[in-house]
Amino acid sequence: MLSIEDVQVFYGNIRALEGVSLHVKQGEIVTLIGANGAGKSTLLKTVSGLLKPKKGRVLLEGKEIGGKAAQLIVKKGISHVPEGRRVFANMTVEENLQLGAYLRKDKEGLKQDYEKVYSLFPRLLERLKQQAGTLSGGEQQMLAMGRALMAKPRLLLLDEPSMGLAPLLVKTIFRIIEEINQAGTTILLVEQNAHLALSIAQRAYVMETGRIVLSGTSDELTSSD
Ligand code: ADP
Ligand code: ADP
Fold this sequence. Notes:
InterPro entries: AAA+_ATPase, ABC_branched_ATPase_LivF/BraG, ABC_transporter-like_ATP-bd, ABC_transporter-like_CS, BCAA_Transport_ATP-bd_LivF, P-loop_NTPase
Distance between the termini: 28 Å
Pfam families: ABC_tran
Protein name: Branched-chain amino acid ABC transporter ATP-binding protein
Order of helices and strands: EEEHEEHEHHHHEHEHEEH
Radius of gyration: 17 Å
Oligomer: single chain
Largest sheet: 6 strands, mixed
Strand order of the largest sheet: 6-7-8-3-9-10
Number of strands: 10
GO biological process, one term: L-amino acid transport
Number of helices: 9
Bound molecules: adenosine-5'-diphosphate
Helix content: 25-40%
GO molecular function: ATP binding; ATP hydrolysis activity; branched-chain amino acid transmembrane transporter activity
């Protein structure tokens, strides 16, 4: 479904990615693990169109991806949940979800998709009229994911969804990620906690200073560490 071929990305003069290639098949959960600063977020931003590679290609179903992030959601069905649970703080929970829905190309099945998001995240349903900025950290993460799902992505990019959350909540979020995947959404997951990531992903890529240094099935990587 997704192919990244020999990608090189710079921030000014700083090279953040070098010779990165990666593949995600339809229906998979693939995780990108590695230390802080390895280039994981940069890679997700390159897939979602926020950054342009200087060299190399990003292909979705064989077609090169280009354009702005919002266009990619509409045209290609890629939703990106960035690090740090970005919600529109002054809008209600409901309005945040509507923004996600606004981005989708296909308005069909909208009602069922709201129901689906509410069943995945019952806490959001209880707080539809609440300002998103007053939600707890975990609830904001859920809202950011719910909003991304309302855009009806085929590929969901998740950047450190567990960051800063209590262990019990992390478990809940990861169970929900598995449910989203089982309902048919392909997922590329950035996660610092390798153990956690390998527990739900089929395959993993390990990054170090802008390169992929190891890849394999989660079973292979779990037994090698
Ligand atoms: P990770 O997600 O693995 O923690 P990042 O992709 O955030 O890593 O960062 C990769 C490298 O790019 C790091 O060296 C980081 O300092 C640098 N970097 C990230 N964002 C920027 C930016 N906006 N401007 C300059 N350098 C950046
Ligand atoms: P945490 O313990 O995760 O930091 P908070 O103490 O911020 O969470 O919030 C606890 C609960 O109270 C959350 O469910 C949050 O949605 C709710 N809450 C926080 N602020 C408000 C508010 N101004 N109005 C209504 N509910 C709120």
